[in-house]
Structures are given as structure tokens and as C-alpha cells.
Amino acid sequence: MREVLTVSFLWEFLRSPLTVGAVAPSGRALAEVAAASVPSGAGEPVVVELGPGTGAFTAVIQRRLGGRGRHVAVELNARFAARLALAHGGVDVVRADARDLPAVLAERGLSGADVVVSGLPWAAFSSREQGDVLQAVTEVLPADGVFTTFAYVHARWMAPARRLSRALHARFDEVVVGRTVWGNLPPALVYHCRRPVPASVLRLTGA
Fold first, then answer.
1. Percent of the chain topping pLDDT 70
2. Of 11, 16, 190, 204, which is most buried, counting CB atoms within 10 Å of its CB?
3. How far is residue 107's CA from residue 46's CA, in Å, rounded to a whole number?
4. Residue closest to 158 by CA, chosen among 124, 133, 184
5. 106-141 in b/e burial notation, b at 16+ Cβ within 10 A?
6. Tens-place pLDDT, residues 99-110
7. 153 three-state secondary structure
């Protein structure tokens, strides 16, 4: 199954490299770290997944939820979205742009999300696109919400990754960089972001 998903992912990358952004899906080890903020005990959390692709993170999030709460997966690629919906019947798969996240949740009667997990290809985004997506994320997160995303270690010092890091620090009071997941291909690290900064403060600081 892993081989089939990898071939599918590569094909979609070749079709649309700017929206897929990688030549292989994320591995289980990275998924476990990225989804660690999803509550696995009690309650009915709302979890949003951005750019789920072939579902590497989706399966781990579903396991942690154990049938509780809501899991909304926002995927722009039509083929990925269709496959994800078939493979995970308990997930509300939405074909939409991540920048429209507030509207996506509002259409489902949800005022916000407790956790947002991102698998988006940040390196393929312009500065404005990165900012628009992060603005959408902070709009739906409460003060105690958590946002996680990842970056590849080899590209961490390149311009898009540095831009992402600055944007995260501007929009969250706390940004913790997790340990390197060497078992992923390529190796990656996860950003754990908490306490979103209000938009009014961002305007004042010029972030």
C-alpha cells in the first residue's frame, strides 16, 4: 500500500508541483509527531487538517480521536480529496483552499478548531500566500488552540523556510521546534505553535 501511495503522490507532484510540493508522502514517524497535539483521551475536539494529501497524517489523527469530535480535512487536489474520502469515511473531506478555512468551518456550524495540523507545501507558497494561510489558521484557533506544521531539515535555511519561521513567530506567542524526525524521507522537523496573536496586534507591529 505504501508503494502505491508513493507512486500516486509522485504522479500528482509531476502534474502540479506547486500545489503538491513534495515527491513522496510524509512517513508515519513524522505523522506521529505532527499529530501529537490532537487529544487522545476524552472530549469532543475539532481537528482541522490542511493539505492531507494521501492521508499520512489523517490515519494518525483518526486513531488519536478514536471516533470522538470532528475531523475536517481541507485538500485542494481533487484526486487526493476523492481518495481520502473513500479511505476515511469518518473524516469530513473538503475540496477547498486553506485560505478559506474560516468559511469552511462556518459552513459546518463550527466556530473554530482546537487543533490545526498542516501538511501544506510552504516552500511552494509566496510570502503573501503563506501569510494568508496563517491568517486563516489564527482566525479559527482559540487562545488555547494548537497549530502544528513541518519543514524539511535540508531546506530549513532556505528563503521560503526562513520566511515561514518568521511568519510563525509573528503570529504565535510560542513556537517550539521539535526534534528532527530522521526516519522521514527527507528528514523533517515539526513546529508546535500556541497562543495565536490577534490580528490587531499584527497590524501594529507590521508583521
1. 85
2. 190
3. 14
4. 124
5. eeeebebbbbbbbbbbbbbbeeeebbbbbbbbbebb
6. 999 999 999 999
7. helix
CA quadruple 148, 154, 157, 162: dihedral sign = negative
Helix (H) or strand (E) holding 139: helix 127-140
The pTM (predicted TM-score) of the whole model is: 0.85
| Cα-based torsion angle of the residue sequence 54, 60, 62, 63 in order, rounded to the nearest 10 degrees | 140
List CB contacts of 192: < 8 A, sequence separation 6 or more. Answer: 36, 37, 146, 148, 175, 176, 177, 178
Kindly list the distances between the CA atom of residue 57 and the CA atoms of 132, 148, 151, in Å, as whole numbers in the listed order: 23, 11, 15
List pLDDT tens digits, range 24-83.
456 889 999 999 999 988 899 999 999 999 899 999 999 999 999 999 999 999 999 999
Sign of the CA dihedral with 103 first, then 108, 109, and 111 last: negative
State yes or no: pLDDT of 15 exceeds 60: no
Specify the residue for cell string 505504501: 2
Q: Output the nine-digit C-alpha cell for 56.
A: 499520512
